[in-house]
Amino acid sequence: MASMKKSIRENAGFPRVRLRRNRKSVWSRRLVAENRLSADDLILPLFVTQGENKKTPVAMMPGVFRLSVDLAVKKIKEAKELGIPAVAIFPSIDAKLRDAKASEAVNAKNLICQTVAAVKKSVSDIGIITDVALDPYTSHGQDGLVKNGEILNDETVEILCCQAVIQARAGADIIAPSDMMDGRIGALRDALDAAGFEAVQIMSYAAKYASNFYGPFRDAVGSTKNLGKADKKTYQMDFANSNEALREVALDIAEGADMILIKPGMPYLDILWRVRETFHVPVFSYQVSGEYAMIKAAGSLGWLDEKAAFYESLMAFKRAGATGIFTYYAIEMARELRGGL
Asked: What is the signed CA dihedral for 155, 171, 326, 106, rounded to 10 degrees?
């Protein structure tokens, strides 16, 4: 053994390049790290519900709650104090307010508008992102109007434009259409501009896939039972496709999107990477409810270190090129990062 070691050392060709040298200590690994995760990268999704001082757990998402407006404002204040730059708000409305035409979506006093106005009154310098889609408001759970079993595109876009304008009027900073109707970005841009909201940004869910990872979210906003056994495959993207995502993104940028969102997250890091490499615009990704639930479940069983797994998964988004990440773990991660994770 000694002679073998000697012969290796005497061999001038034996690795002069030793990549392990840069990994030998904590300070060195920090010094050469290619990507960083900070609170600036995090967007907190929140579910809001009617009532006051109301906090209802989402069964399939441990640690996530439906919050009444007053409690949502408190949570957003906490997010701001931790350095999180933006929150995304999703409604869970009373079943009595849902109908086939999504009438509540264009009610200027609806739950989302109430929440946005309350946040703007109480919290400064944090971005408010609002979802533009009809599924939280429809009795059938689809993102668009339905006629004879078909999801109507153009008629849906007309309602989305009204929905976007009332959200902007309430104070939304970023309008985020998640509906996947064709042509809606251009129509929304025109509608916002015509209403005097030229400065309101559009973050397009340009590549939103018909995924199996949305289940807990649909439960949180109350659309699971309404949707039943139906699906959204005629408008959300086929998860077998990649090139099609680039076409969707190109169209939305041409129509006026300021930012692009890829959804879901980790199962679609290849899409995120391709979009980031192809287009020079901010590209965000969404660690969706199913991804969150899996890590939480494995952590609760002791199969994973929850904190470490979330950190690694969020770093994977950064490595793939994400400008920022929607994650239900934003508050917890911002705390850990502040503590020097």
From this structure: -20
Question: What is the model's pLDDT at position 215?
Answer: 78
* Contact present, 275 and 283 (Cβ < 8 Å): yes
Range of the domain at 87: 38-261
Helix H or strand E encompassing 327? strand 324-327
Q: Would strands 283-287 and 259-263 be described as parallel, antiparallel, or unpaired?
A: parallel
Nearest Cα to 110, choosing from 59, 179, 167, 159? Answer: 167
- Alpha carbons within 13 angstroms on the beta-carbon side of residue 121 total 11
Measured CA distances, 260 to 134, 178, 192, 322 (Å) = 20, 11, 18, 10
Residue 315 in any domain: the answer is: no
Residue 154, both tokens: 């153009």
Q: Is residue 313 a contact partner of residue 295, using CB atoms and an 8 Å limit?
A: yes
**What residues contact residue 236 under an 8 Å CB cut-off, 6+ apart?**
180, 208, 209, 210, 211
Exposure on the CB side of residue 27, measured as CA atoms within 13 A? 0
Q: Which residues of the chain fall short of a pLDDT of 50?
A: none
pLDDT score at 3 = 57
CB 209 within 8 A of CB 55: no
- β-strand pairing of 150-152 with 145-147: antiparallel
Give residue 298's pLDDT.
96
Coil, helix or strand for 207?
strand
Enumerate the active-site residues: 208, 263
Q: Give pLDDT, residue 96.
A: 93
CATH number of domain containing 180: 3.20.20.70
The DSSP result for 126-186, as a single string, is: -EEEEEE-STTTBSS--SSEEETTEEEHHHHHHHHHHHHHHHHHHT-SEEEE-S--TTHHH
Tell me the C-alpha distance between 313 and 242, whole Å: 21
Rg (CA), the chain: 22
Domain count, the chain: 1
Q: Is residue 219 part of a domain?
A: yes
Residue 2 has a pLDDT of 56
What is the pLDDT, as a whole number, of residue 102?
Answer: 95
Distance from C-alpha of 202 to C-alpha of 284, rounded to nearest angstrom: 12
